[in-house]
Amino acid sequence: MGIKDTASSLQSSMAPGGDQSGDSGKRCKRCREFLELIDTNGLLSKAANEELPDEARLERLRRLDRVARTMDERRYADFSRARQVALSLNSRCKSSWR
Mean pLDDT of all residues in the chain? Predict the structure, then answer.
């Protein structure tokens, strides 16, 4: 799991109404304190708050945009539906991991 994923799960559990009961809350607090301790230049805090650009994601979006521009209307409709299905499956998988 990457830093952004860890930070994201920490933020969701530390948010109001999140799971802060028992060991989970203590663990999140310790993790956040540790990240603050080792974060000498503020980069980890920015990553935790998703303020850093995700270069890999941006490159994927650019590549998909180039591919979509070359498609005719029918192929684009198929492509768009396939992307929606893939994204919905991906979001379901991520929600089951939490």
Answer: 75
To which residue do tokens 């995700």 refer? 54
How many residues are given for the chain?
Answer: 98
Global pTM reads: 0.37
| Ramachandran region, residue 54 (left: φ > 0; alpha: ψ -120 to 50; beta: rest) | beta
d(CA 98, CA 95): 5
- Res. 74: pLDDT tops 90: yes
- Residue-by-residue DSSP string for the chain: --HHHHHHHHHHHHSTTS--SHHHHHHHHHHHHHHHHH-SSSHHHHHHTT-S--HHHHHHHHHHHHHHHT--HHHHHHHHHHHHHHHHHHHHHHHHH-
Domain locations in the chain? 3-48, 55-97
